């Protein structure tokens, strides 16, 4: 199992969460909530109002999201869904645990007690330069006060 941190449309209550609970795509087990240890710019960009974490450490905000344990099948699905490695790149980042529900072995307990876990995160280094000038968010909600409604893939 791999640990993945999601900060956008794959979170609970967001438009693409349905994929995280679709066992035909693999297994994803909610472990808890967290936020990036480092600051990153989280922007909503493009004509479909997609949330992107720009891989510019030290700039922006500590981004809030959810931590999941996923099996290899779900990780492959997420790579494809996220357009990895062209649109997003999957990299390891340190995530501070804010709330932990994860149950598991000694490693899980130690990680939760220490308050920081390493997770795969889909961020991007391949973005138009003007995105750096967009407003930065510390968390994403598709129906947030930003007023930028996410456009589902099936509606594009």
Automatic annotation (TrEMBL):
GO terms for cellular component: cytosol. GO terms for biological process: modified amino acid catabolic process. It is an enzyme of class 4 (lyase). Gene3D superfamilies: Gamma-glutamyl cyclotransferase-like. Keywords: Lyase, Transferase. It comes from the Eukaryota. One of its GO terms (molecular function) is gamma-glutamylaminecyclotransferase activity. The active site is at 82 (proton acceptor). It catalyses: epsilon-(gamma-L-glutamyl)-L-lysine = 5-oxo-L-proline + L-lysine. Transmembrane segments: none annotated. It holds the Pfam family GGACT. SUPFAM superfamilies: Gamma-glutamyl cyclotransferase-like. InterPro entries: AIG2-like_dom, GGACT, GGCT-like, GGCT-like_sf. Its EC number is 4.3.2.8. Residues 4-102 form the Gamma-glutamylcyclotransferase AIG2-like domain. Catalyzes the formation of 5-oxo-L-proline from L-gamma-glutamyl-L-epsilon-lysine. Belongs to the gamma-glutamylcyclotransferase family. This is Gamma-glutamylaminecyclotransferase. It comes from Eurypyga helias (Sunbittern).
